[in-house]
Amino acid sequence: MTIDITTAGLHADAVRSLRDWSVADADQEQLRLDYLAHLDAHPDGLWRSCLPAHITASAVVVDPSAGRVLLTLHPKVGIWLQMGGHCEPGDGTLAAAALREATEESGIAGLELLTADGLPTPVKLDRHRVRCTGKDQPENTHLDVQYVALAPAGAEALISEESLDLRWFAYDRLPELTDSSVRELVTLARGLTG
């Protein structure tokens, strides 16, 4: 892959974001180090074409004023998830990729990522197996960098073609079809946003 200035900038931002993010949890720290090793070994490590693994970006959309979280029923995996996906060439930063995905999939304008020291910061990492290259292709691994996106109070979501369904849920009433990673992310988001 030819590395252009945009690709190099996104790669450098991902390295900076992960390098500067401090975590107290030993499992999250190991994932952070694994992600950095992946990026060190793969200049194309943020792109879908990088196999068997690549970095992705996601954001859980919350409306703290109403104590609710927006989840999408993912058409490929059939469970409720946060918004997210693959980085694209127009994404200048990893946080921008997460915000773009959250905005596209939620239909909500004016989302803002949770920040620390004035910069959007990841809140959680999650490594999981998927079939994003096609159902007849081998599984690959998403190295997901997860953010929290704050919705304007009373925001109304608009379903996109990327969802089977899109709904707001009370923090303590998540749908049965969620996995432990989503539940952990929602708990974390709730704690960080009050």
From TrEMBL:
Q: Which UniProt keywords apply?
A: Hydrolase
Which InterPro entries would you find in this protein's record?
NUDIX_hydrolase-like_dom_sf, NUDIX_hydrolase_dom
Q: Where's the Nudix hydrolase domain? A: 52-191
For this protein, what is any one GO molecular function term? Answer: hydrolase activity
What SUPFAM superfamilies does the record point to?
Answer: Nudix (SSF55811)
Coiled coil segments of this chain? none
Please list the cofactors this protein needs: Mg(2+)
Please give the name of this protein: NUDIX hydrolase
Organism of derivation = Kitasatospora kazusensis
The organism's taxonomic lineage, starting at the top: Bacteria, Bacillati, Actinomycetota, Actinomycetes, Kitasatosporales
